[in-house]
Amino acid sequence: MGGKKLKQIEAFVDSVYLNVGGNKQEIQELKAEMKSHLLEAVHELKVEGKTDQEAIAIAIERFGGEKEIRSIIEKLFEVQKIFAKRVLYIAVGFLVLTLSIVGFLWQNAESNAQEISEIATQIADELKDKEVVTIEMKREIERLVESTTYISEVSIYNSKGIRSEGENFVGYNTEAKKPDHQYKRMVWAPKWLGVDLYTYANGDEQWYVEMKQRSFGSLETVVLFVGLAIYWTLFSIWAIINAYHQKRLNIGWIFIFVLFNIFGYLIYLFVGRRIHSNKAGGDFS
Predict the structure, then answer these.
(1) Exposure check for the chain: N or C terminus, fewer CB within 10 A?
(2) How far is 38 from 24, CA to CA, in rounded Å?
(3) d(CA 45, CA 40)
């Protein structure tokens, strides 16, 4: 086939990919593949007795025409871009959501810990130098508990019957001892969320106070583990897709993305820049 006819096919292929955005190397490979198919079709038509011009026109027509092919290719590349972006956005979204929930639960736990410490101090002040828990003291303790949304139970023991001292420790055993005063109430703590009750205790030589409070510790752990696992997986998928489109994907990079996640992708970018820089230096020389 003459050079003029070959240029006609190349011009057609270039026009198809004129406004297609994407990886340059991938586009060049697709263009070369389309050109190869067209040349093969033209050769077969010429064998049937068609002239060069007729063979090229028929081959292009059978291929689908410039507008139709361009539309299909543009949509294909657009779908790939949208899919990759969505995977990345969802990954980042899960990361932000996970850290927000965990941060909120942690801050809530810190706030509750500070408040329960203050309540324990107030109860200790009420009990100080008292021989028994009076009705007024019981009412004040109940008021302090009701002022929170997370304390479910307060048990007060006289330390004399439960306190044991060693050389380096002071212990309290409340298992076989009935509390001198106990106040219970229901708090919102669904088991299906992994919410449980955590015991806070404080005592001295005279009184020992035990309080049960709602804890989101288990939920916080589950949210952190599941959220990070989803983010890690989606980001690794996005990195693998990018490496595939840039024709640099291999089993080594897959392992690096899966094991090191964003740090692995930063390594991938750094290596890519080094390779590009070396190639540019080699071309210049």
Answers:
(1) C
(2) 21
(3) 9
